[in-house]
């Protein structure tokens, strides 16, 4: 978690969100401190407009792609919330959970 | 009146973009709509959304190009009133209704909007009617001190693929402008409510959904109550189906929602479990709004009286959709939101209200 926080610090969310040279997905991954390979790939796709070239974007059906992502997300959710440690951690978000246990202060 | 046209590319996030354009009165031109796809141009539901906007306004001009890959939209004044609309069954009615919630508040007359189509689907961006009715609308009602005139009635439920559902949305108009919002403490969950519904299916199914959802949630909190709504005959459309919507309410008045519909061959237990676990995920994300309410509240913040609005959202609520939304706001209203990362991992978003007045009403 510590590493994640540090990575995030590198990029200012404000700047990333309103930087129009990045597409939204890139902006998010940039902010999350993930690599910049994605950005370069996308550029390659864009400035080539050969007549006979089949663009990558056209070949993958966005609806199918969305379905696949949703399916993966579903699996992830089911798995994540079967684990006892994750469920334990969530207790503090409910009024029934003890706050003292993980040292969170109440307001 | 003669404002500069704003250009956009692509058809994603079209609904919110057009709603914002209507509120700001800016003509927009959208180009490159699936232009490199095998099946280019606008989809039927997108055209239908444009037609719906046309019905809710007076003097709007929509020009769709011959190929359907670009169009020009010059918004007129928002009139509201009694409107009926048939939505294509490709998307749930939430797709059409959710972006219009704030729009209708600034109409000339109170809106009574009847929509027919699919009432809930598994499309992540289509808000189900139950989530709208039990989470989004009560939250807006509380933040904006709207009375009971803001109401959503589910006359008929319609499952995919044939739809046949019918809802009636009643919306008052704001007299001057919206109050400012300051939400910094999400609070903690103190109860969970839900609605398990079915159309043209044995009533035992909904009980099985409820059972499995409670199995996941009861260890956190005993106050879990899931209503059941079994529709048959004239009360629903032609397709059989079942769905679950869950809402977790916090002691500070925020709410988190999750929804799930049964797909072909899926057991009711799986739907219940998946929905409950999605709710846990949303609760973990935290913040004061979930992603269903987020666009409406952010638009409301932008339009409110000229004061600083503040809201805390979860880290994972910053999605590419939100980025698109924020850029659209900047393009159409010239306003930026400010972000501050809090120690808790949440993000605080602030923006100065526009002091947007309900000009349509004054013209009356």
TrEMBL record, chain B:
GO terms for molecular function: enzyme activator activity; RNA endonuclease activity. It holds the Pfam family RTC_insert. The keyword Nucleus applies. Residues 7-338 form the RNA 3'-terminal phosphate cyclase domain. It is found in: Nucleus, Nucleolus. Keywords: Nucleus, Ribosome biogenesis. SUPFAM superfamilies: EPT/RTPC-like. InterPro entries: RNA3'-term_phos_cycl_insert, RNA3'_phos_cyclase_dom, RNA3'_phos_cyclase_dom_sf, RNA3'_term_phos_cyc, RNA3'_term_phos_cyc_type_2, RNA3'_term_phos_cycl-like_CS, RNA3'P_cycl/enolpyr_Trfase_a/b, RPTC_insert. Residues 184-284 form the RNA 3'-terminal phosphate cyclase insert domain. It comes from the Eukaryota. GO terms for cellular component: 90S preribosome; nucleolus; small-subunit processome. PROSITE patterns: RTC. GO terms for biological process: endonucleolytic cleavage in 5'-ETS of tricistronic rRNA transcript (SSU-rRNA, 5.8S rRNA, LSU-rRNA); endonucleolytic cleavage in ITS1 to separate SSU-rRNA from 5.8S rRNA and LSU-rRNA from tricistronic rRNA transcript (SSU-rRNA, 5.8S rRNA, LSU-rRNA); endonucleolytic cleavage of tricistronic rRNA transcript (SSU-rRNA, 5.8S rRNA, LSU-rRNA); endonucleolytic cleavage to generate mature 5'-end of SSU-rRNA from (SSU-rRNA, 5.8S rRNA, LSU-rRNA); regulation of rRNA processing. PANTHER family: RNA 3' TERMINAL PHOSPHATE CYCLASE, RNA 3'-TERMINAL PHOSPHATE CYCLASE-LIKE PROTEIN. Belongs to the RNA 3'-terminal cyclase family. Type 2 subfamily. This is RNA 3'-terminal phosphate cyclase. The lineage of its organism: Eukaryota, Fungi, Dikarya, Ascomycota, Taphrinomycotina. The gene is rcl1.
């Amino acid at each position: 978690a510590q590493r994640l926080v540090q990575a995030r610090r590198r990029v200012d969310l404000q700047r990333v969100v309103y930087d129009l040279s990045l597409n939204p997905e890139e902006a998010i991954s940039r902010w999350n401190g993930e690599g910049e390979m994605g950005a370069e790939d996308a550029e390659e796709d864009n400035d080539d407009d050969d007549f006979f070239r089949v663009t990558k974007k056209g070949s993958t059906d966005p609806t199918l792609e969305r379905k696949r992502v949703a399916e993966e997300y579903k699996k992830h959710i089911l798995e994540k919330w079967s684990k006892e440690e994750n469920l334990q951690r969530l207790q503090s978000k409910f009024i029934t959970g003890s706050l003292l246990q993980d040292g969170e202060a109440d307001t | 009146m003669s404002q500069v046209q704003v250009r956009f590319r692509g058809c994603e996030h079209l609904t919110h973009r057009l709603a914002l354009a209507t509120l700001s009165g800016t003509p927009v031109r959208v180009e490159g709509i699936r232009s490199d796809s095998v099946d280019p141009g606008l989809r039927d539901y997108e055209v239908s959304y444009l037609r719906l906007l046309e019905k809710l306004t007076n003097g709007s001009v929509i020009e769709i190009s011959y190929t359907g890959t670009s169009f020009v939209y010059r918004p007129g004044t928002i009139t509201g009133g009694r409107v009926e609309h048939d939505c294509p069954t490709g998307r749930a009615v939430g797709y059409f209704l959710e972006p219009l919630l704030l729009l209708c508040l600034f109409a000339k007359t109170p809106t009574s909007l009847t929509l027919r189509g699919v009432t809930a689907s598994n499309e992540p961006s289509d808000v189900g009617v139950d989530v709208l009715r039990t989470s989004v609308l009560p939250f807006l009602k509380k933040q904006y001190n709207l009375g009971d005139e803001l109401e959503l009635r589910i006359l008929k439920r319609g499952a995919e693929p044939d739809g046949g559902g019918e809802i009636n949305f009643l919306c008052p108009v704001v007299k001057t402008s919206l109050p400012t919002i300051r939400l910094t403490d999400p609070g903690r969950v103190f109860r969970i409510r839900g609605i398990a519904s079915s159309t043209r299916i044995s009533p035992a199914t909904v009980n099985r959904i409820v059972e499995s959802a409670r199995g996941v949630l009861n260890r956190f909190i005993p106050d879990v109550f899931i209503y059941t709504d079994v529709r048959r005959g004239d009360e629903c459309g032609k397709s059989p189906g079942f769905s679950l919507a869950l809402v977790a309410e916090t002691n500070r008045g925020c709410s988190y929602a999750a929804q799930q519909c049964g797909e072909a061959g899926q057991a009711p237990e799986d739907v219940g479990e998946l929905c409950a676990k999605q709710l846990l995920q949303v609760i973990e994300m935290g913040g004061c709004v979930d992603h269903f309410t987020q666009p409406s509240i952010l638009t409301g913040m932008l339009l409110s009286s000229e004061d600083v609005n503040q809201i805390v959202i979860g880290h994972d609520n910053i999605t590419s959709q939100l980025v698109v939304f924020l850029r659209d706001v900047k393009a159409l209203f010239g306003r930026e939101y400010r972000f501050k990362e809090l120690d808790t991992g949440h993000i605080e978003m602030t923006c100065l209200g526009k002091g947007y007045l309900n000009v349509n009403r004054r013209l009356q």
